Amino acid sequence: IDSSWYGANNSTPHPDGDALYGSFREYYLQQSMGEHDIVGVGQDSLLVLNPDSAGTGYPLWVVLDSSKNYYLDISVSEPDATINFHRDVINAFAAMMNDEPSIDTTGITKWVIIYTGNVDYSSSLRPGAYPASTIYPDPPDTNYPNFKDYYVQSEVWSNSGSYSNPSGFTHIGQQVHEFGHLLGAVDEYFEIGTNTFDPFKWALMSFGIYNGPTIGTSGNSVVGSCPAGFSPPYRVFSFDWIPVIDIENDTALTIHYDYSNPKYYNIDIPGSHEYFILENRLREGFDEFTAIPDTGGYSPSGDPNGAIGGLLIWHADSLETSSTMSDFIEIEFANNDPYHNNVPPDDWFNYYGHPFPYGSNDQDFNDNTAPSSNKRDGSNSNVSFQGIKWNSSDSSTFVYIIIGQDSISPATPQNLTLTNEGGNPRLRWAGNNTEPDLKGYNLYKELSKFPPGALDTLVYFTTDTTYLDQSFKIGGSFPWVFAEYWVQARDFAGNESGPSNSRSTKGKSVLPAKLLTQSDIPEEYRLAQNYPNPFNPVTTIKYDLPEDSFVHLDIYDLLGREVKTLLNEVVKAGYKVVSWEGKDNNGNPVSTGMYIYRLTVNSAESNEGILVVRKMVLLR
C-alpha cells in the first residue's frame, strides 16, 4: 500500500494537486478483501510489458500513424468508429512487439487503452469497455493471439464530456468502473423505459463512479477520486470476494459497520429467484463520500441518522437476462424515491436516496408499507423488516426480519393495575411476555362522558410495562370524564394479543405540563371528527401534532381493507387539515357506507407513538 496516494489538496502526487483517497490497486484490494490484486509500475521494471529504454519502469507510449484530430473528426455514430480506433491501437502495439522481442503477453487476461489528453464522448475516442471479439472475432487474429477484453479511457476528464472543456486528470473512479465491466459488472444507471432501478451514488456501476470532493465551480462532485464500492450482490455472489450470512428464519439483527470486514446478510424471497441483502453503510475509506451529503447543513426532518449513513436494503433478481442486467440490482430507499415510478431526478449528481430508517426511528418495511418489500411483479414477498431503529451511540441499526406469514399473536398481558400517582393514573402490568419478536405494548384508553356519550379511543405505544398518563387528572368536580384502560401486547409483524383486564377511573382530560408553555403549537396529539359527517362528496379531517412526526393517515372499510392512504410522510408540528374526496387509491369513487379513518403517529423526537381511530359516513 502506497501512503503517498492519500492527502489533501496539493499534498499528493496527482498532476493537478487534487486530494486522493487511494489508488486503483488499493480500491480493488479493499473491495475484494485482498482477493484481487492489480500490479502496475513497481520496483521491478519487468512488471511493465513495454518499459522505456531509460529503465524507469514506466511504459513506452504507443504512437499511431494518424493524428488525434483525425479520430476526433470521426463521429461516434459512424459505423465501427470506435472499433477502428481500437484496432489501430492494437496494431501499433503489435508492431512495437515486433521491434521489442522482450515483450511477452502470455497469460495476460485484461487490457487497458489510455489515450493522452482530454476525453471526448462524441467521437471515436469515446471511453468504454469491450470484449476482445469486438476487434478480433473468435478465433483471434493470428498476428495477435493474446489480445483479451479491454477498456478505453482518457488521460484527462471533463465534467461536460466535451473535448473543449477539460476538467483535470482522470481520477480512479472512471478507471475502476470500466475495469469492473471487464470483471462482468454492468452499468446500473437509470434509463427511462429500460432500467427502472438505480442505486445512484451508493454503487460504483452507477453514479458512485463520481464520488469525491467537489472540484471547480460546477457544484457537481463528478471527479471520482473516492468512488463508491460495488453493489453487494457483486461482492458476495458474482465475484465471490466476501462471505454472506444467510438469514433463513425470523431473526432480530443488530447490524454494525465494519469497513475492513464488511457484513452482508442475505434473505431469499420464498418461492422466488429474488433476494434481499442488508448492510450498514457509514463513512470510511472509499465509503467516505456516501450518497447523503455531510456539508451545507443538510438535515432532513425526522431523519434519525442524518448524513452519517444507515441500513441499505438491496433487492436483486438473479434471473435477469443479459438485456436487462442493469435492472439486476436496486436499493429500496427508505424515503420511497420517485425513480420507482420510472421518473428520473432533475439533477443526477445531487440526488440522494435515503437509507433506513427515515422519518421515524421505528420504521417498518414490508408488503404493505411505502416503500414496500413487494417482488418485482408487485406481488407480496412475504418478507418483512420491522422496527428498524438507528442507534446513535454506536451507529448500528436494529431490524427484526420476518420470513413468511406470521399470524401468531403474543400472549395476553396480565394483572393490569391503576394507582393514583400525583393525581395522574399510573398503569402497571406483569411482564409475562417472553416472545422473541415482541415489539412492545399498546395501551388503550377509551374516554366517555357523563351524561353517557363516546369521546376518543386513544392508543399509546410503549416498550415498558408501566405508563403514567399525564393527560388525565383523577377526581375533580362533576361533570366527569370516565377513562377505561387495557393493554394488548404487539409483535413486530403487527399481531396483537387479546386485551388484558381493564381498569377505570373518573376525572378530567388535561394537558401534559411540559406542553402548557408552547402556545405556538398544539399541546397534544389529537384527531378530530371529520366535518361534515355524513358527507358527500368531500370531507375534511383535522389533526394536531405537538412535535415533528412521521404520520400515517389511512381510510378503511368495515372489513378492514385499506381504501385510501391520505398521508405517509414526515409532517411538521402544528394544526393540520387534510381532505378526502370519497375516492380510493386508484381514483375510483367509493360506495355509500361507513368508513374508518386511522391516524398513526411516531414522534421524530422520542420512541413513543399514538394511534387514534374514528368513524365517518359517506352518503351518495
Topology, number of strands: 30
Average pLDDT, rounded to a whole number, is 79
**Helix-and-strand structural type:** mainly beta
Radius of gyration from CA coordinates? 31 Å
Please report the distance between the alpha carbons of the first and last residues.
Answer: 75 Å
The main sheet comes to: 9 strands, antiparallel
Choose one word for the global shape: elongated
Any low-confidence stretches, pLDDT <50, length ≥5? 216-221, 295-302, 338-346, 511-519
Number of helices: 5
Report the sheet-strand fraction.
Answer: 25-35%
Q: Which strands sit side by side, in order, in the main sheet?
A: 21-23-22-18-19-30-29-26-27
The helix content is under 10%
Q: How would you describe this structure to a colleague?
A:
The radius of gyration is 31 Å and the shape is elongated. With about 625 residues, it is mainly beta. Among the domains are: about 170 residues, no CATH class; about 100 residues, Immunoglobulin-like (Sandwich), CATH 2.60.40; about 90 residues, Immunoglobulin-like, CATH 2.60.40. About 5% of the residues have low confidence. Strand 29 and strand 30 form a beta hairpin. About 10% of the residues lie in helices and about 30% in strands. It contains five helices and 30 strands. The strands form seven sheets. Strands 21-23-22-18-19-30-29-26-27 form a nine-stranded antiparallel β-sheet, with no helix packed on it. It has a five-stranded mixed β-sheet with strand order 7-9-10-11-12, with no helix packed on it. Strands 3, 4, 5 and 6 form a four-stranded mixed β-sheet that branches.
